[in-house]
Design goal:
The complex is a heterodimer.
Chain A: H1 4-36, E1 39-40, E2 48-49, H2 53-58, H3 62-94, H4 101-109, H5 116-127, H6 132-141, H7 159-181, H8 186-194, H9 199-210, H10 212-227, H11 231-236, H12 248-258, H13 262-292
Antiparallel strand pairs in A: 1-2
Chain B: H1 3-6, H2 12-39, H3 44-49, H4 61-69, H5 72-103, H6 108-119, H7 124-138, H8 145-167, H9 172-180, H10 185-196, H11 198-213, H12 217-222, H13 231-239, H14 246-276
Helix pairs in contact in B: 2-14, 4-14, 5-8, 5-11, 5-13, 6-8, 8-11, 11-14, 13-14
Classes of the chains: A mainly alpha, B mainly alpha.
């Protein structure tokens, strides 16, 4: 038998390598970032302590506010677009409403493996003057000069991005709901059918409420995910034109790495983290409440 | 499974709508990819004149030129190195940590588990700025290690927690009897825990591979030399240049998408299982 001390040493030899890499790369920089957010610094030379000034400035910075608005739009398309559509698709597959349900599932889930930056480039080609969409519109309307101008609209420039997000992530929720639907015994639906419940009633009154906790957890994950959106938008528009499609993370990148404003950039990244932490704490609080009741 | 047959079919109205919605989703998902695929076989003039038409004389010329102009072979190699090393390292580090946390009853177990759980909330954006500054100081900018280390670190919290819930389920009796036989913990780990964890390890490795392969920000910011770019970064930069022909842009995008379609076809079942069981969105 090994003695307690060497047992403890073995234990640490298993846990510490992972823990040290994780803390060195994720935890310590976070503290550093927090500190930087109270300074004005160009990346070299003296660092100037400015207190809360960066944070105060953020909430009157029009570009940051457009970014925040667009992040909220991503939250809305996730929670009210991707998740309900994912649920509907999953239910249709689960109830075998179409033949070849496996094939549909496989084709619809495909975008999950494609890198967001490449998805962005793909859709830029679809929306380009020689892309699918303008060409179809030209053929349908007979207007040979049609090109998409939506990206130049301050109000609507973000709409195509929301569409691509729907394209990219709806199937993820479909797969999650499908896995959870398979855990509901068929006898539940059978009993409802025997009592004469219509399909719509079964879906809205029985299945949807049973999946509500799953939908809730996924909504919060979607919300916290929405605040960190970067890859797709950075690759598709870079936040332009004229910041119309800016999101917080893209603005953070440009502020820091393009304009060398390390303090202000750090303040943006801390705000992003605060939104994410708030979303996750909210989940915890609500799940605890649900479990308690 | 026999239960299924007892269920009444959904009414016709639902089935018709289901076909409509499924077909619409499938077309919107697949058609852009198919269009990109066949358009990449057309010369530039044909793309401009007939954007939706099939190629008149399909040619791989665009691929040959995109591959050499974009130095995509180098990027593919980099992607394989980054993803391969990070995936294997994360897997064993996470299984080790999970073994320690699941099967040793020390006081600090709680603290370590809590620390890894907190990690799920941290994101790239929270640390990218200071990490960049640290990597500059440490001379890790423009090195492969400077990309691989953050890959491992960011994947650990999730991987440790997935592994932990699995390793906890391995009966203590197996480990105790090995202890009595005089096995060292190192041996127990390699000859018992690792082989017993194969099912979860497969899921972990596939999800980890996917996250690393598609990662963008670390490679984009921490490397400036084109010789160190990963495939998605190189292709985004190549295809994003406005001054190159459409055919070359399309071909380079197909080169980025095709390996992932193959990966998807090979590991579809594990991906469905991994994501379906509630793995987080990246």
């Amino acid at each position: 038998m090994v003695n307690a001390r060497s047992k403890h040493r073995s234990y640490l030899s298993f846990v510490l390598p992972a823990f040290i890499i994780y803390t060195a790369i994720m935890v310590f920089p976070l503290v550093f970032s927090f500190g930087l957010s109270f300074t004005k610094w160009k990346g070299f030379g003296p660092m100037e302590f400015v207190g809360l000034q960066n944070y105060v400035k953020l909430f009157s910075d029009p570009v940051f506010l457009i970014g925040l608005r667009n992040n909220v739009l991503i939250v809305l398309i996730s929670v009210f677009g991707q998740i309900p559509l994912g649920l509907l698709l999953a239910y249709m597959l689960h109830r075998r409403m179409v033949r070849g349900d496996k094939i549909f599932e496989m084709l619809i889930f495909l975008p999950i493996t494609i890198s967001s930056v490449i998805v962005a480039q793909l859709w830029n080609r679809v929306f380009a003057p020689v892309g699918i969409l303008p060409t179809l519109v030209r053929q349908i309307t007979g207007n040979p000069d049609y090109v998409m101008t939506i990206f130049e609209s301050k109000t609507f420039a973000f709409v195509p991005i929301m569409f691509v997000l729907l394209w990219q992530h709806t199937s993820l929720y479909m797969i999650i709901f499908l896995a959870n639907l398979q855990r509901i015994p068929d006898s539940v639906i059978e009993a409802a059918q025997m009592e004469g419940a219509t399909e719509g009633v079964i879906f809205r009154k029985i299945i949807a409420p049973m999946l509500a906790p799953v939908a809730f957890i996924n909504s919060i994950l979607a919300i916290s995910g929405s605040f960190k959106s970067f890859d797709l938008i950075f690759s598709m528009t870079g936040g332009g034109p004229a910041h119309f499609t800016e999101v917080m993370a893209v603005y953070m990148y440009n502020t820091t790495f393009v304009y060398q404003n390390y303090g202000y950039g750090s303040a943006i990244s801390i705000v992003i983290i605060l939104f994410i932490v708030a979303a996750i704490l909210l989940t915890k609080a609500v799940t605890n409440k649900l479990n308690a009741s | 499974m026999n239960d299924r047959t007892r269920l009444k079919k959904a009414p016709l109205g639902w089935r018709i709508s289901a076909y409509a919605i499924m077909l619409l989703f499938t077309v919107i998902t697949v058609f852009p990819l198919v269009w990109l695929g066949y358009s990449s076989l057309k010369p530039n003039a044909e793309i401009v004149l007939h954007p939706l038409a099939l190629p008149q004389a399909p040619s791989f010329d665009n691929y040959v030129r995109a591959w050499t102009m974009g130095k995509l072979g180098v990027s593919l190699g980099n992607s394989l190195i980054y993803t391969g090393v990070a995936t294997v390292a994360t897997l064993f580090l996470a299984l080790g940590a999970a073994f320690g946390l699941a099967k040793f009853a020390f006081k600090s177990v709680k603290f370590f588990t809590w620390a890894f759980t907190i990690g799920l909330m941290l994101t790239v954006h929270a640390v990218i700025i200071p990490l960049f500054l640290v990597e500059v100081k440490a001379g890790l900018i423009n090195t492969r290690l400077g990309v691989i280390l953050p890959y491992i670190a960011f994947d650990l919290p999730m991987s440790v927690l997935i592994a932990l819930s699995f390793v906890k389920g391995i009966p203590d009796a197996i480990i105790e009897s090995a202890e009595i036989d005089g096995a060292k913990y190192r041996q127990i780990f390699w000859s018992l825990i690792v082989p017993l964890s194969t099912p979860v390890a497969a899921t972990m490795a596939i999800l980890s591979f996917l996250r690393h392969w598609n990662e963008f920000m670390f490679v984009f910011i921490f490397t400036t030399k084109s010789a160190l770019k990963s495939l998605p970064v190189a292709i985004t930069q190549f295809a994003g240049r406005q001054n190159i022909e459409y055919g070359l842009q399309y071909a380079s995008l197909v080169i980025g998408i095709l390996p992932m379609i193959i990966f998807y076809v090979l590991f579809h079942a594990q991906l469905v299982k991994g994501f379906g069981e509630g793995a987080l969105k990246e």
